[in-house]
Fold this sequence. Notes:
11 helices; 10 strands; disordered N terminus
Amino acid sequence: MRIHLFVFWQFTLLALPVFAQATNDTWTDQSPHKEAFVRVNGTSLEYLDWGGSGIPLLFLAGLGNTAHIFDDMAPKLTNHFHVLGLTRRGYGKSDRPETGYDTGTLVEDIHQFLDALKIKRVILVGHSFAGMELSRFAVLYPDRVDKLVYLDCAYSYDQPGTMEVLSQVDSLTPHPSTTDRANFSSLRQWFKNNRPGWNDACESDFRNTRVFTTSGGYSGHGSTPDVVEDTLVKGFMEFHPEYVKLTAPVLAFYADHQLEKLVAQADDASRKKAAEIAKSGRDWQRNQIERFKQEVKNSQILELPDTDHFCFIQRQDEVVRQMQSFLNKQH
């Protein structure tokens, strides 16, 4: 599923050689946010503040992303909420210490961030990897959480056979070629062609996860050390969410990862096998959804057909509309 496929895509990018982007690049970040830094838990973390009034809403990005991935979506929620985004340690402009990538430390980073900004209660909205942080934070600090929104991240990967299923599904997805990986521009173009709904938020996030060169441009190389990625993924795959302990109202989006489209794109010789793999993937996800429904009584589930893992980009207007409805409702 794309929830873990994106992790593998990021891994492929980390090993790329460094090439400078041309210095005549005139792109600028137009998102109406304030960029600031806060020192918490011994680490400096970047956060974005899009303003707005009302209860604070904090976006947490998926693995490989920064808070900038919400640059387009976040301003659409400032009419009812004070919208913020936090870039976890190891990514973007946040510090990249050698340690502190276990679940407990990542959650404590969020806890201390809220304390530093004097936020008593918060709406947490997370994508992909951040599902682990949402779940753990809400269990440890239930009195600090108003509501939870899972953007295709209400999954658990610690069950037997999960990695086999997801690795097979990964084999159906496109991956950048050597030519695509040659430099910043070609790699960016590959992502633009393969991420449905590519927008300025994707562009900003892509740049914020690249190495900035002395010549004034960007390289094609990822800025996060391999050891950080390895540690985060290991913890992610071993994490067991305690969904039954969630007390806050929950909205969970599930994307179908466009498995049918992947099967249709397979050649004739491999289409039957691709269909079998896709069925395994759908069965795995269905089990995940049913488990979540059973364990989280105060939940609303929304399944998005023909939708990529980055559902909040590809189906942004629909996701925002559903979030507004859920978050403004009395529970």
